[in-house]
Amino acid sequence: MSRFFLFFFLTSVCVAQTSVSADGAATFNCSTIRELLSSCHEESLQIIENASPYSQRRSTTQAESDNLGVSRAGEVFHMALQLLKDKAQQKYERKFTASELLSWENVKLLGELSQCPAATDPDVCEQSHHNKYRTITGLCNNRQNPRWGAANTALVRWLPAEYEDGEGEPNGWNRERLHNGFQLPPPRRVSREIIRSSCKWREDDYSQLLVDWGQYIDHDMTFTPQSIRSAAFWTDVDCHKTCENVHPCFPIEIEGSLCMPFRRSTPDCFITSGSDFHQVLQRQQLNAITSYIDASLVYGHTPKLESTFRDLSGLSGKLTVNKRFRDQNGRSFLPFVVKTPSACRTDQQGERVECFRAGDSRVNEVLPLIALHTLWLREHNRIAEALKLINDHWSPEIIYQETRKIVGAMHQIITMRDYVPKIIGLESFERYIGPYRGYDPTVDASASNVFATAALRFGHGTIPPILSRLNASFQEHEQYPHLRIHKSFFSPWRIVKEGGIEPTLRGLIGTAAPTVHANSLLVEEVTEMLVVLDTHQNMDLASLNLQRGRDHGLPGYNKWRNFCGLMQIQTLADLTKAVGDVSVAEKILDLYKHPDNIDIWLGGLVENIIPGSRTGPLFACLIGKQMKSIRDGDRFWWEADGVFTQQQQNELLKASLSRVICDNTDIQEVPPDSFKFGNYPADYVECGAIPLMSLDAWREERSRDLELCGLPRPIKNGDFIFSSQSGILTALYSCYHGFKLEGAAEIICEGNQWSNEAPRCTCE
Ligand code: HEM
Ligand SMILES: *[C@@H]1O[C@H](CO)[C@@H](O)[C@H](O)[C@H]1NC(C)=O
Ligand SMILES: *[C@@H]1O[C@H](CO)[C@@H](O)[C@H](O)[C@H]1NC(C)=O
Q1: In the chain, which segments carry CATH 2.10.70.10?
Q2: 472 ligand 3 Cβ < 6 A
Q3: pTM (predicted TM-score)
Q4: How far apart are CA 357 and CA 352, in angstroms?
Q5: Index of the ligand 3 atom closest to the CA of residue 478
Q6: Catalytic residue chosen out of the listed positions 41, 219, 477, 552
Q7: For 463-480, what is each residue's pLDDT tens digit?
Q8: Which residue has its alpha carbon closest to ligand 2 atom 9?
């Protein structure tokens, strides 16, 4: 459509509009494209605001509330596009895509109106602060492309999205629509007929901890926020009650006329001159957190969140701990959420136990997750205390940042050295990841959509139905016996009142992981009894995963096989070979009819496991590629030049999850590699035999300059770190969240005094 025609067309839509208003369609008046766009935008704003989404959703999760700005912009932008398309359709009685209707300039205009985030100028990365430590948002990790891997940026596409309308309607949105000649099977049917299983065998070389580390580390890399609205935009129908597909509700059909609620993931909008026109108009999803392995699930991913976890008044560089409860040995627990009463379950007796608060808002989902978060809270505080003793001239900020850096490195080492090879197998590790060759600034470390939405969700097939809780001799705990998994959802009280984190942690180390097989995929505990906060109905994790893949427009299983250089599935024989089980292969083709229609998550999940791993060839490839980019594209990767000294690297290499458990719990015997299953006591060793990283490698003598100038002055509501990049001792000041700096942010040690007075931090 030419520009001239476009103008003409849009103008005529405007003129014609008044007559359409009778059937309740939105009316507007305008005579230019600009006005038309603003009016669609206005209307979209009104629709989104009128249903008062913010108050209604604020309580649910932190990540959702602190990315409200970005989510809202995306929501407004896409709603305006939808309005525009609807108007065009009403007028011309055929469907239009936004790219038929709009020019690049129009899109930019709409982006501005919707307040889509602007490009980040690489200049902001020049601040010296951003060179010594990671930013909390991940911004500027890559200096040329500051947003790569940062929180609240789009999940990247390794293959273009495939939507029913090419732009944003998910597959299955129009239930009658044919794909390759067939309707897509409803996710719940796939779940019921292929995925659901009533049992799992445990006979594995690996421990249950391997399963739960997967979920834990996923929460360091991806969090796809859902629509900020829980009601349909147009009709204000509640997504929990409708069976109709109306943005953002995309309910999952179950038998009869019932549905399971489902909200679409929030769309992103980010428009720069370099953006691809079609990609901008296509619906993209967000990653609310940093994709880097940086322990963002301990520290948060925005300055505001971060400030709520720090114990700033203690001047110790530590994190805040629970003020009301400690465990039987005086060890700390995570703090509670601020807003009470919270949505977590609690026992009826005694004091209420609220949801815990951590750098990632999903912490309360299952007990093992709470246990791991608690472990790292304690590890941070343990290291911070030790560093303070070693370097008494370090400010609280330096202690905090150095500790955060060490904890981040430990997350990387445990994940890349101990976890990933067991998940994808050594051979895939070598093929897709290989040895480290240094930081590569051309690599985009952003999480890909297929990784978050399909590949890493392989882990859902490794969830056992029972959570073991063990006593000090690694036998079922007499007081706190094993639990069915669903009894451990959102139950922080079981940590506080049922013996702390030890019974659960021992259960993770001391229990074999379930095996994965095509005919026992997801246990009923999660397909029939999943709890999702703010939904009262029992949910089905398998259906959610399938529906989420369609919501995100992920291409099908075969396209991804092709992406990874694997053979295309064309016949039952092909599929049987990939799956290793003819009856499962038959059931899949029965339901899907055409191999190209198979949902990627299902296809990847049922593949024959590569010996010695937990995944089939497709997921091994996708996970391998992602882990490589997250490693190679991270300027602060622990092995990158200049991040740690050689001596520090040598110490970090001694880190292990077994040691972290030894140092922060009552557990005194562990397997050397706690991801491997061993029998107690034969395969266990005393903690004393587990390598201990010496923090002496972080000892920093006071330099001559520092002796001469003396310690920089501490300030209220802010702090300093040292830098000596230019060979001159410099104190870099910054203010805590909510305060702004007045005076010189950098002061240097000249002669025998500091160049300036310390700055002040005042209320913003
Ligand atoms: C009992 C254990 C678990 C429960 C209850 C659970 C539950 C959930 C739920 C409810 C979602 C959101 C589904 C949606 O609406 O799209 C989710 C997402 C996800 N889960 Fe799990 N999960 C568990 C274990 C795991 C494990 C073991 C792994 C990996 C090894 C894993 C990886 C993921 C990933 C990658 C996502 C997508 C995250 C995002 O980008 O938002 N989960 N899980
Ligand atoms: C434009 O629309 C508004 C309400 O949407 C109406 O009040 C106003 O009279 C209209 N203006 C014209 C010129 O039609
Ligand atoms: C753990 O439980 C087993 C079996 O009930 C019991 O024999 C053992 O003494 C218990 N160990 C401890 C340290 O309580």
Answers
A1: 704-763
A2: yes
A3: 0.92
A4: 15
A5: 5
A6: 219
A7: 999 999 999 999 999 999
A8: 29
